[in-house]
Protein backbone atom coordinates (compact mmCIF):
# COMPACT_ATOMS: atom_id res chain seq x y z
CA UNK A 1 0.00 0.00 0.00
CA UNK A 2 1.42 3.38 -1.01
CA UNK A 3 2.02 5.86 1.78
CA UNK A 4 0.29 9.19 1.66
CA UNK A 5 2.40 12.30 1.33
CA UNK A 6 3.20 14.45 4.34
CA UNK A 7 0.20 15.57 6.34
CA UNK A 8 -0.96 19.09 5.61
CA UNK A 9 -0.79 21.52 8.52
CA UNK A 10 -4.19 22.19 10.01
CA UNK A 11 -5.73 25.38 11.28
CA UNK A 12 -8.58 25.32 13.81
CA UNK A 13 -10.73 28.45 13.79
CA UNK A 14 -13.21 28.86 16.66
CA UNK A 15 -16.76 30.15 16.34
CA UNK A 16 -16.96 32.93 18.92
CA UNK A 17 -20.12 34.31 20.50
CA UNK A 18 -20.57 37.91 19.33
CA UNK A 19 -22.26 39.30 22.44
CA UNK A 20 -22.53 42.86 21.13
CA UNK A 21 -24.19 41.84 17.87
CA UNK A 22 -26.51 39.40 19.65
CA UNK A 23 -27.50 42.15 22.10
CA UNK A 24 -28.07 44.62 19.24
CA UNK A 25 -30.34 42.15 17.43
CA UNK A 26 -32.30 41.49 20.64
CA UNK A 27 -32.73 45.25 21.09
CA UNK A 28 -34.21 45.41 17.58
CA UNK A 29 -36.85 42.84 18.56
CA UNK A 30 -37.64 44.71 21.81
CA UNK A 31 -37.83 48.03 20.00
CA UNK A 32 -40.34 46.69 17.47
CA UNK A 33 -42.48 45.23 20.28
CA UNK A 34 -42.43 48.46 22.30
CA UNK A 35 -43.46 50.56 19.31
CA UNK A 36 -46.01 48.00 18.12
CA UNK A 37 -44.30 47.80 14.74
CA UNK A 38 -43.75 44.81 12.48
CA UNK A 39 -40.47 43.63 11.03
CA UNK A 40 -39.49 44.61 7.49
CA UNK A 41 -40.56 42.23 4.73
CA UNK A 42 -38.05 39.39 4.74
CA UNK A 43 -36.27 40.56 7.90
CA UNK A 44 -34.89 37.84 10.18
CA UNK A 45 -35.49 38.66 13.83
CA UNK A 46 -33.42 36.90 16.45
CA UNK A 47 -35.42 34.38 18.50
CA UNK A 48 -34.66 33.82 22.20
CA UNK A 49 -32.84 30.52 21.52
CA UNK A 50 -30.57 32.08 18.84
CA UNK A 51 -27.21 33.83 19.18
CA UNK A 52 -24.84 35.39 16.69
CA UNK A 53 -21.38 33.86 16.39
CA UNK A 54 -18.45 34.92 14.27
CA UNK A 55 -15.55 33.18 12.65
CA UNK A 56 -12.50 35.36 12.06
CA UNK A 57 -10.50 34.01 9.16
CA UNK A 58 -6.97 34.38 10.47
CA UNK A 59 -5.84 33.11 7.10
CA UNK A 60 -7.98 33.57 4.03
CA UNK A 61 -6.23 31.85 1.18
CA UNK A 62 -5.41 28.22 0.51
CA UNK A 63 -7.79 26.68 3.01
CA UNK A 64 -9.48 23.34 2.47
CA UNK A 65 -12.31 22.33 4.78
CA UNK A 66 -11.37 19.31 6.90
CA UNK A 67 -14.08 18.97 9.57
CA UNK A 68 -16.31 20.56 12.12
CA UNK A 69 -15.18 20.25 15.72
CA UNK A 70 -18.37 20.64 17.77
CA UNK A 71 -18.74 19.56 21.37
CA UNK A 72 -21.79 19.84 23.61
CA UNK A 73 -21.12 19.18 27.28
CA UNK A 74 -24.75 18.14 27.77
CA UNK A 75 -27.48 16.47 25.74
CA UNK A 76 -29.26 18.67 23.23
CA UNK A 77 -29.01 20.13 19.76
CA UNK A 78 -27.49 23.11 17.93
CA UNK A 79 -28.16 24.29 14.41
CA UNK A 80 -25.43 26.37 12.77
CA UNK A 81 -26.63 28.57 9.93
CA UNK A 82 -24.23 30.72 7.96
CA UNK A 83 -25.11 34.19 6.77
CA UNK A 84 -24.01 36.07 3.70
CA UNK A 85 -24.24 39.27 5.74
CA UNK A 86 -21.24 41.56 6.07
CA UNK A 87 -22.66 43.01 9.22
CA UNK A 88 -23.32 46.61 10.02
CA UNK A 89 -26.50 46.08 12.05
CA UNK A 90 -26.81 49.76 12.82
CA UNK A 91 -27.25 50.30 9.07
CA UNK A 92 -28.80 47.07 7.80
CA UNK A 93 -30.99 44.35 9.28
CA UNK A 94 -30.43 40.65 8.67
CA UNK A 95 -32.72 39.38 5.94
CA UNK A 96 -33.89 35.78 5.59
CA UNK A 97 -32.46 35.67 2.04
CA UNK A 98 -29.02 36.13 3.61
CA UNK A 99 -29.24 32.81 5.48
CA UNK A 100 -27.21 30.12 3.75
CA UNK A 101 -28.37 26.59 3.03
CA UNK A 102 -27.72 23.96 4.12
CA UNK A 103 -27.39 24.39 7.86
CA UNK A 104 -25.22 22.11 9.97
CA UNK A 105 -27.10 20.36 12.79
CA UNK A 106 -25.28 18.71 15.68
CA UNK A 107 -26.81 16.85 18.61
CA UNK A 108 -25.91 14.74 21.57
CA UNK A 109 -28.33 12.17 22.94
CA UNK A 110 -28.94 11.49 26.60
CA UNK A 111 -26.37 9.12 28.14
CA UNK A 112 -24.08 9.49 25.13
CA UNK A 113 -20.63 11.02 24.86
CA UNK A 114 -20.76 10.91 21.05
CA UNK A 115 -21.87 13.82 18.88
CA UNK A 116 -24.13 13.10 15.91
CA UNK A 117 -24.71 15.41 12.96
CA UNK A 118 -26.37 15.71 9.57
CA UNK A 119 -23.14 14.70 7.88
CA UNK A 120 -23.86 15.47 4.22
CA UNK A 121 -25.25 18.96 4.88
CA UNK A 122 -22.55 19.79 7.44
CA UNK A 123 -19.82 18.74 5.00
CA UNK A 124 -21.36 20.73 2.13
CA UNK A 125 -21.63 23.79 4.37
CA UNK A 126 -18.05 23.36 5.55
CA UNK A 127 -16.75 23.16 1.99
CA UNK A 128 -18.51 26.44 1.20
CA UNK A 129 -16.59 28.05 4.06
CA UNK A 130 -13.31 27.42 2.23
CA UNK A 131 -14.63 29.44 -0.71
CA UNK A 132 -16.08 32.18 1.48
CA UNK A 133 -12.77 32.51 3.34
CA UNK A 134 -11.17 33.73 0.11
CA UNK A 135 -13.37 36.83 0.02
CA UNK A 136 -14.10 37.45 3.70
CA UNK A 137 -12.19 38.28 6.82
CA UNK A 138 -15.16 37.49 9.07
CA UNK A 139 -18.17 35.25 8.71
CA UNK A 140 -21.27 35.41 10.87
CA UNK A 141 -23.47 32.53 11.96
CA UNK A 142 -26.81 32.17 13.67
CA UNK A 143 -26.66 29.33 16.14
CA UNK A 144 -29.98 28.00 17.35
CA UNK A 145 -29.89 26.17 20.67
CA UNK A 146 -32.42 23.40 21.28
CA UNK A 147 -33.38 20.89 23.93
CA UNK A 148 -32.00 22.89 26.85
CA UNK A 149 -28.57 23.68 25.37
CA UNK A 150 -27.15 27.15 26.02
CA UNK A 151 -24.09 28.97 24.67
CA UNK A 152 -22.04 27.91 27.69
CA UNK A 153 -22.58 24.25 26.69
CA UNK A 154 -21.09 24.69 23.21
CA UNK A 155 -17.54 24.62 21.94
CA UNK A 156 -17.33 24.83 18.16
CA UNK A 157 -14.61 25.38 15.60
CA UNK A 158 -13.92 24.68 11.97
CA UNK A 159 -10.74 22.82 11.06
CA UNK A 160 -9.09 23.56 7.71
CA UNK A 161 -6.11 22.02 5.96
CA UNK A 162 -3.58 24.61 4.89
CA UNK A 163 -2.67 24.02 1.26
Describe this structure in words.
- The chain has 163 residues and is of the alpha+beta class.
- The radius of gyration is 17 Å and the shape is globular.
- The relative contact order is 0.29.
- The longest helix has 17 residues, at 19-35.
- The mean pLDDT is 89.
- The chain has a 6-stranded antiparallel beta sheet. Strands 1-9-4 form a 3-stranded antiparallel beta sheet, covered by helices on one side.
- The protein has helices at residues 19-35, 119-133; strands at residues 10-14, 16-17, 50-56, 63-72, 76-82, 104-108, 115-117, 138-146, 154-162.
- The chain is built from 2 helices and 9 strands; from the N terminus they run E-E-H-E-E-E-E-E-H-E-E.
Amino acid sequence: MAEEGPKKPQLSMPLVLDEDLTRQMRLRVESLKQRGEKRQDGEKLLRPAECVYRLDFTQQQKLQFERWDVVLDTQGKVTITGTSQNWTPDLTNLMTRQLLDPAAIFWRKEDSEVMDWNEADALEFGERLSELAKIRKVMYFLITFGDGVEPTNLKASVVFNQL
